[in-house]
């Protein structure tokens, strides 16, 4: 993701653009696929500190024309990425459809090959649609692996699913079945018990759980092993849930940054269209040192519904991207940390438009 420093540099560079350049940049950014922008920002997240520093230095020396060229290149790249994404996604969907047909005919081995190819294809795609399709193929693959007696492979496949979706009933139940087939009964009971907790009204799950529970109740040495397996799997679920929440939070931050960049471009265009109104707003902020702090506190305390209503009713917000809670949080942080020098710079930029 963009660091705060990179976001600040990008905003300063956009402020140097002419109205025509801003309008062109808005069109470019509006045409970029959100999924593709997220994929690009995901790649940026993995940049080393040296790479980030070099990127900041490069952005700091870019002219308005350079920014326009970079945006144009990003738009072209986004178009190519979307075309590639759609090609891979559609091919993977076809593989899944073929796999489903083979399952219907009882040919689970060949179906496994179809699902495996689809899963491998989808590994590099970051869109929600690709993630959903991948999970579906993984669950179908786990079913085939159960049918063909590949229990260790089934356990591995289901574990991969549970890292992404710790509450998946199918993954939990099928992994329990695979453990049972393999003879790992404490682990099997731990999974079947959790599956029963996830779906207490599912008669098939309940029957499997109670049958194995009764079987193990006759083994005096099994109780300690069962407790150990339950504790281990509970820890795994907790870790997976925390990792998933962290991933979702990073995604929300990415979406907020993308939307903020679009909002910055739209706002900058409005500055060009009505510099007198913006100059008046800057003067009012400068005359009230507590205004930024008050605005920051207000944004922090607002509910998503209040934020949405404010964005819709605020003068001059027409045509602006929707203000999300994540964007409001980011704006609140920026406002809170804005120095008098930053405010003066904003006034100078507005006055020079």
TrEMBL record:
TPR repeat coordinates: 169-202
Coiled coil: 212-271
Domain of life: Eukaryota
Keywords recorded for this protein, A-Z: Coiled coil, TPR repeat
Keyword Endoplasmic reticulum found: no
Protein name: STI1 domain-containing protein
Species per Swiss-Prot/TrEMBL record: Pyramimonas obovata
């Amino acid at each position: 993701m963009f660091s705060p420093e990179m976001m600040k540099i990008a905003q300063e560079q956009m402020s140097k653009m002419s109205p025509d350049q801003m309008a062109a940049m808005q069109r470019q950014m509006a045409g970029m696929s959100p999924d593709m922008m997220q994929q690009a920002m995901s790649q940026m997240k993995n940049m080393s500190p040296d790479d980030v520093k070099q990127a900041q230095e490069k952005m700091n020396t870019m002219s308005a024309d350079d920014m326009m060229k970079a945006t144009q290149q990003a738009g072209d790249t986004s178009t190519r990425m979307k075309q590639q994404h759609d090609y891979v996604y559609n091919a993977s969907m076809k593989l899944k459809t073929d796999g489903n047909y083979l399952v219907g005919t009882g040919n689970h081995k060949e179906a496994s090959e179809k699902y495996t190819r689809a899963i491998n294809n989808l590994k590099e795609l970051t869109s929600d649609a690709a993630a959903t399709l991948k999970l579906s193929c993984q669950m179908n693959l786990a079913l085939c692996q159960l049918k063909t007696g590949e229990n260790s492979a089934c356990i591995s496949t289901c574990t991969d699913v549970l890292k992404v979706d710790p509450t998946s009933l199918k993954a939990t139940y099928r992994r329990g079945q695979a453990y049972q087939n393999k003879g790992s009964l404490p682990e099997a009971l731990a999974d079947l018990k959790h599956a029963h907790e996830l779906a207490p009204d599912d008669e098939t799950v309940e029957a499997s759980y109670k049958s194995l529970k009764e079987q193990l109740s006759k083994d005096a040495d099994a109780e300690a092993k069962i407790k150990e397996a339950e504790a281990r799997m509970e820890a795994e679920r907790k870790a997976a849930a925390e990792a998933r929440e962290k991933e979702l939070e990073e995604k929300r931050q990415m979406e907020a940054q993308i939307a903020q960049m679009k909002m910055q471009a739209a706002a900058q265009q409005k500055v060009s269209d009505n510099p007198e109104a913006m100059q008046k707003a800057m003067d009012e902020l400068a005359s009230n040192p507590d205004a930024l702090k008050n605005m920051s506190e207000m944004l922090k305390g607002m509910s998503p519904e209040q934020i949405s209503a404010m964005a819709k009713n605020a003068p001059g917000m027409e045509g602006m991207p929707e203000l999300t809670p994540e964007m409001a949080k980011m704006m609140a942080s920026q406002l809170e940390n804005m120095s008098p020098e930053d405010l003066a710079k904003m006034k100078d930029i507005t006055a020079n438009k």
